[in-house]
Amino acid sequence: MSHQTPLGSSVPQANCLDLWKEKNDQLVRQFKVAQDTGLPLRRQQLAQDALEGLRGLLHSLQGLPATVPVLPLELTVICNFITLRASLAQGFTEDQAQDIQRGLERVLETQEQLGPRLERGLRGLWNSILHASSLLLELLPALHHLAGLQVALWLSTDRLGDLIFLLQTLNGSQNGASEDLLMLLKTWRPPSKESDAPLTLQDAQVLRDVLLTASAYRQGLQELITGNLPQALSSLHEAASGLCSRPVLVQVYTALGTCLRKMGNPQRALLYLVAALKGGSTWGPPLLEASRLYRQLGNTVAELESLELLVEALSVTHNSEVPLLLIEVELLLPRPDPASPLHCGTQSQVKHLLASRCLQTGRAEDAAEHYLDLLALLLDGSEPKFPPTPCPPGPCMPEVFLEAAAALIQAGRAQDALTVCEELLNRTSSLLPKMPRLWESDRKGTKESPHCPPWVSATYLLQGQAWVHLGAQKEAISEFSRCLELLFRATPKDKEQGPASNCEQGCTSNVALQHLRAAALISRGLEWVASGQDTKALQDFLLSVQVCPGNRDASFHLLQTLRKLDRRDEATALRRRLEAQTKLSQENATWSLPLYLETCLSWIHPPDHETLLEEFRTSLPEPCDL
Questions:
Q1: DSSP string, 388-415
Q2: H/E element holding 50?
Q3: DSSP of 114-154, one letter per residue?
Q4: What gap in Å lies between CA 254 and CA 260, rounded to an integer?
Q5: How far is CA 583 from CA 297, 411, 570, 587, in A?
């Protein structure tokens, strides 16, 4: 039975109700004018004025005891106020939750069911109201509209359990009811309002459609990240058919392209990416996904063109879009997540991806130019540094320098590579170990050795390679020796020194350090060979085989030197081991080395292994049984 309030000043007269309704309708019309205004500042001011008007009206209504005749208007004003407030703030806050709670408590006041606030909470309030036997039908349209805003708030804060509970209650079934969010939203039918009902900023049915589209997109994106591709495809198709603005449709089409590429349908994926590029001015995500697709197809030219366009797109400053003035899909989407396939990173991160792909695909000249542009971009302060965990995955700053130096050497610009290496050492001189102190510790017999980041040793390795390309043998050997001095004296951080930085984790693995040592030893050994000092070369090649047993290049260089020194028995034994060694161990074969190290290893790689083995087989025949 509804609560009866005594007659008197607390009972609003019919003319007051009409005045309040007219005030609400006037503010809604004012909002419509704001929507149609082409001037952003004027649009924002009109919307703000409408918000303040709704705030004042709501204050007047809630300053009186709650009564059934006024509740439909009061709930409508709350809905309009929350809609405009969330729109102007570009998101939901705790204030909106309090506005909803106050409205629900006012409903319960009219039914004499208001209990302690702390014991109820929003979920308890909704359960009490929607299961109340005395709930009047004329309240249902406004209550369902308010419930739609509650769904939006819980969706934006990932409270899916409460959200599903509320939708089940709205649909009139809980026990055994479906927990499929999209199915619950499709089943929900907000009641139609009367023709003479107060005006609303956004219709409850439209709000439901927005919620369905946003939920489908959020669900599809999450399933895409977790690898549930068939379900992701279904959810994303649902989102694409919903109330999508052009920017949202670009995101949905890009996600569909990603999903189809991963499912092995590159042609269909390409169609969606083309549609995404035609759909709006937000070209970053579809261009990045296009580069991934072309890479998968082996079309390197198209892949690099996509990345170049992406770098250009990220360099353009887009005008900030006019804020939304309704609850739309954009307002309910999750914050950008680096794990998302739609996250394309910064201009510097994409520039690095372009430069590294040029280096990996043999376009050394292009790679060198891109790396120099990247260093200029990073060092002039116009771009943020690479974050600790870059996305797309990329290196830390020192590795960018090292990759740039490797690209310059590969492009025949060894002198420029030396400049880049010197710049790196100058900028990080405080991290370098103090060698006199190290030697002093050795003289005292202590075992302490300072931590030296592996990329410092790698810098000397690349400087040595640069001198090799410049024909300066003495300087090259000196740099390789400095590299080895650091690699064998300075050890990586141990547990007592704390964890290694993200920058160092990829370089301090046993496999990476083994190959770094082997590269320095082989490089110096080749210079000893070039200067006719085969005995010294033999020592370096022997040591390289010991420090990196899985490096076949080291074994082949050792074999060549043994043959040259006419040490036939040792050469024959090594040749047999190489013939039995069909491939690297699985661990080493699948390990990803830093790009600068892979590039450096390619320079000391002997010609075709099988051809060399056949040549050695001929020159080193098996001894005949006598």
A1: SS-SS----HHHHHHHHHHHHHHTT-HH
A2: helix 40-62
A3: ---HHHHHHHHHHHHHHT-TT--GGGHHHHHHHHHHHHHHH
A4: 10
A5: 27, 30, 21, 11
Lowest mean pLDDT segment, chosen from 302-306, 546-550, 614-618 = 614-618
DSSP 263-300: TT-HHHHHHHHHHHHHH-S--HHHHHHHHHHHHHHT-H
Contact 51, 81 (CB under 8 A): yes
Using CA atoms, how far apart are residues 489 and 442, in angstroms rounded to an integer?
10
- Report the Cα 119 to chain-centroid distance in Å: 40
Mean pLDDT of 304-330: 80
* Number of helices followed by number of strands (H, E) in the chain: 29, 0
* 83: phi then psi, degrees, rounded to nearest 5: -60, -50
Q: How far apart are the first and last CA of the chain?
A: 116
Residue 41's pLDDT is: 81
- DSSP code per residue over 541-593: HHHHHHH-TT-HHHHHHHHHHHHHTT-HHHHHHHHHHHHH--S--HHHHHPPP
Provide the 3-class DSSP secondary structure of residue 229.
Answer: helix
pLDDT band at residue 343 using 50, 70 and 90 as cut-offs: confident
Q: In terms of pTM, does the model score above 0.90?
A: no
Distances from the Cα of 450 to the Cα of 196, 432, 447, 521, 547, angstroms: 81, 9, 10, 22, 21
Query: Which residues 6+ apart lie within 8 Å of 1 measured at CB?
Result: 112, 134
Contacts of 415-423 with CB under 8 Å at 24 or more apart are 415/466, 415/470, 416/368, 416/372, 417/462, 417/463, 417/465, 417/466, 418/463, 418/466, 418/467, 420/375, 421/459, 421/462, 421/463, 421/466
- Which amino acid is present at 527? E
For residue 607, give the amino acid letter.
P
b/e map 71-109, b = 16+ CB within 10 Å? bbbbbbbbbbbbbbbbbbeeebeeebbebbbebbbbbbb
Q: Residue 515 to residues 40, 400, 426, 526, 538: CA-CA distances in angstroms?
A: 59, 19, 26, 16, 18
- Is the CB of residue 192 less than 8 Å from the CB of residue 171? no
**Rounded to whole angstroms, how far apart are CA atoms 232 and 143?**
33
The per-residue pLDDT for 11 is 47
pLDDT in tens, 63-93: 888 888 999 999 999 999 999 999 988 889 8
Output the pLDDT for position 46: 85
Tokens of 347: 């201009």
* Distance (Å, whole) CA 537 – CA 541: 6
Q: Report d(CA 444, CA 265) in Å as an integer.
A: 67
